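Entry 14. Structure prediction run on the chain below.
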Amino acid sequence: MKLSIIGTGYVGLVQGACFADTGNNVICMDIDEKKISSLKKGTIPIYEPGLEELVRKNVQEGRLEFTTSIKTAVQKSDIIFLCLPTPPSEDGSADLTHVLSVANQIAELANGEKIVVSKSTVPVGTVDKIRQVLKKKAKHTMEVVSNPEFLKEGSALQDSLKPDRVVIGTRSKKTAATLQELYDPFVRTGNPIIVMDERSSEMTKYAANAFLATKISFMNELANLCEEVGADIDSIRRGIGSDPRIGKQFLFPGVGYGGSCFPKDVKALVVTAEQYGNTLTILRSVDKVNEEQKRVLLRKLNKHFNNQLKGKTIALWGLSFKPQTDDIREAPSLVMIRELLDAGAKVRAHDPIANKMVEPLFRGKVEFCENCYDALKDADALLVVTEWNEFRRPDFSKMKKQMKKPVILDGRNIYDPKEMKEKGFIYYSIGR
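Output returned:
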């Protein structure tokens, strides 16, 4: 099939490479000339394990190309995927400026019948708005479909090549059949392709992310209670996770969720409800709990030092919002760094991938270290913020020698409290 991907951000680039890898001819288009130039040279603007190799392979085999020309992307393809940013507005609602602007351009440039696929995370009713734009301006028949993505950063290739499910929102049997054919190579093991109406499809994406965010905030709030009552959240996690109705995923307590999806989508769904005169009380609380949880290590740190952080050297391990990505959007680490600097502390930070993403935000104010042990030099305390694998089994003797004081605040519960005590560390974790 001849496909175009409008927007070569995280979703667009991953999805484009995966479509090309199953034999389709794919044009990835973006208005960012620097990004497209880099992609043509084989340089990937994001960190995602395996993506660079997949892109390079399909470019060499002639199935994947990059352009800044939307005319080329529209006129040389039969199916056009919109993988555009929908940033939050001031009120938390999704900004559809990019989506509707591109819809206008497609309508003006289309040289035949097209299928336009909305893959961006958009509010309910967006497909209808796109359809109205196309119907008003396009000279040819245009089908509009909702096809939300369910990618997890750090495992996006597997999520694309072997998805748990594919959701297609369309009332057209012909269009549904075309997209089912496109996705068939990805679901050979029998995972479902679920066809539904467009609005239900749009809501499915928000519902999935909001529910997972709810699980995280629930466990974080429960972890804080465990510390008060003397219970162990890890034991509770295993106890409830064995119930198949609950499941084992997204039950790990920590310092709050971040990234490009959960924070934005929870807020957007709350705003959508308000527009229809509804109040999503649970999701309002989910968002509030998450914002407060980003400061849980700071509360413990302040208590340990009797609110005297001025002049203290604090090390941070982990800056990205999760491992296996350089994404720092809504990352808890940013909240911690800002408040530590405001308190007069000196901050040393290390992340295996994301140093370069955070450094421009705090240029000259934070020392960024290429080695995790260098970040510990003369540190009064260490905050473990992101659970990168290389942090799980460090040289604790070396850590103690580097640090001024052997204090660790573990925001991801990757160490054993008993073992840390035996090694001579003052150790704080979440809910234990």
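The chain has a mean pLDDT of 96.
Filed with the rest of this week's runs.
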